[in-house]
Amino acid sequence: MSAASCIIPDTYDKLTSLLVASLLAHMIAEYERAKRAYQELSEIKKQKLNKIYRKRPALQKAVKWVTENQEKFRKPVYGPVGAELDCASEDIAKIVDQHVSNAVLMAFVCETKEVRRCIPSRRNSFYPLF
């Protein structure tokens, strides 16, 4: 076997290793970026919920119940709407706060009739929410 034929497999293995290491580093960096973005969004949603709870403390009980019972429903329940909104700027957020009623901002969005029937039956538990 010639010296040239021995070099090619070694070079190929080194290049492959470098490529794999580079891709892995890129994937780890992307994962960390996505993780940070998710944590930021989670923190923003918590802040929005706390703002809503200050206006309507009973809503915290409703959010807790929906969160704890989410797996019982075929499709997700979203809400309160005010916590789900993501405004592009602070000015837009102020306009939404001023022009959209609190009832809408504190409402839940249900994709199925079963949930729409279930949540109103819990109204007494959340009173004076509804």
Helices, strands, pairings?
Elements: H1 3-55, H2 59-69, E1 77-78, H3 81-84, H4 90-99, H5 102-105, E2 109-110, H6 113-121, H7 123-126
Antiparallel strand pairs: 1-2
Q: What features would you describe in this structure?
A:
The chain is mainly α. The protein has one domain (3-126). The protein contains 7 helices and 2 strands. It has helices at residues 3-55, 59-69, 81-84, 90-99, 102-105, 113-121, 123-126; strands at residues 77-78, 109-110.
Kindly give the count of domains.
1
- The portion of residues assigned to helices is over 70%
Average predicted local confidence, pLDDT: 80
State the low-pLDDT regions, or none. Answer: none
Rg result? 25 Å
Number of H/I helices: 7
What global shape is seen? elongated
* Overall SS class: mainly alpha
- Give the ordered list of helices and strands: HHEHHHEHH
How many beta strands in the DSSP annotation? 2
Strand order of the biggest β-sheet: 1-2
Main β-sheet, in a few words?
2 strands, antiparallel
Rounded to the nearest angstrom, the distance between the terminal CA atoms is 85 Å
> What percentage of the residues does DSSP assign to strands (E)?
under 5%
